[in-house]
Amino acid sequence: MLVFILNAGSSSLKYQLMNPVSKEVLAVGLCERIGIDGVLKHEFGDDAKLKLEVAMPTHKEAIELVLKTLCEGEGKVIDSINDIDAIGHRAVHGGEEFASSVMVSPKVIETMKKLIPLAPLHNPANIMGMEICQELIPGKPNVAVFDTAFHQTMPDYAYMYALPYDQYTKHGIRKYGFHGTSHYFVSNEAQGMLDKKHNTRVIVCHLGNGSSVSAVLNGKCIDTSMGLTPVQGLMMGTRAGDVGAGALSYMMSQENLTIDGALDVMNKKSGILGISGKSSDLREVLEGMQAGDERCKLAVEMVAYNIKKYVGAYVAALDGVDALCFTGGIGENSALIREIVCAGLDGMGLNIDPTKNNKRSQEPRDIATNSSTARIFVIPTNEEYVIANDTYKIVTGLEK
Length: 400
Fold this sequence. Notes:
This protein is an alpha/beta fold. It has 2 domains: 3-146, ATPase, nucleotide binding domain (Nucleotidyltransferase, domain 5), CATH 3.30.420; 196-383, 2-Layer Sandwich (Nucleotidyltransferase, domain 5). The chain contains 15 helices and 14 strands. Strand 9 (201-206) and strand 10 form a beta hairpin. Mg(2+) binds at residues 7, 383. Keywords: ATP-binding, Cytoplasm, Kinase, Magnesium, Metal-binding, Nucleotide-binding, Transferase. One of its GO terms (cellular component) is cytoplasm.
């Protein structure tokens, strides 16, 4: 089976063409600057790359170009769009309505439209991608795979905010969590790597430009750091993470900011960028720290400290830990962040091996010392595979 995986954003879209049974990836790519001028970056075959600058006034033209590129010319990997068996869509917010992936239907799309207030930047683009694929690839099943679904197993005492209860019943104000496909994939891989198969307690640190931590008991999420929106939790590339309401209201009064203005600061001008004053890219900030930049040093220390606090909290929530996992661009590639996070966690049974930690590999690996009572894994995430595999299982009836 060939699954076309689509992740539609507001002005961009990512895609892959994958066989979820063999895990073979035929092509991967990105359309950028949709509605401006349009750039397609397409990778296929043995590291072959193709870049096209083509006008993409809307997402429809972008998807049309992707499908044409898959079937024709230099980037061709299939003979016809009819070779595509199904389309799997990343869907950001499923609210409480979707606790698992589902076949796209008019009812599903209508429900997702009602959830737009919870994800105003993401859900409209996700819906648009579904509707365009139904038009351009008629007769093929579409499946929605939700970022929030994996976290729907959280107990109410973990997902509720201590606001008046009617704010939950009237408006659905609660913690939902995100990066669910990554947390699911990595925690599932960790369970397979552990000798212990029952009562498994896994903490996943998905660290990238957007970051979150989850506590997973026996394969089920019991808590996660992101909340109603992705701005809650860890300090991230440009997001502030946890900030007290008093600090936010005081900043608004001092800077004469509206709600929208404050959210712009919290989402786009804070985090690593806001503290370092240099970049939202941790690699550049690490270089700045090594060059003696004190604000870069502070940013790095804050990032690691934030992660460590959540790890400690989730060890308590899980009543211990069997595996601490690092994934995402930062989690997989920054040995220094892993080292700082794990420093001092010996009392929790987490002992990192410096030699193993500094050894680079694209394969899942254990970087704990032999004597560590809990394991420390670095596991490359594969969200696209989760989308493709869920699509395969739903379309073939393996998951009902």
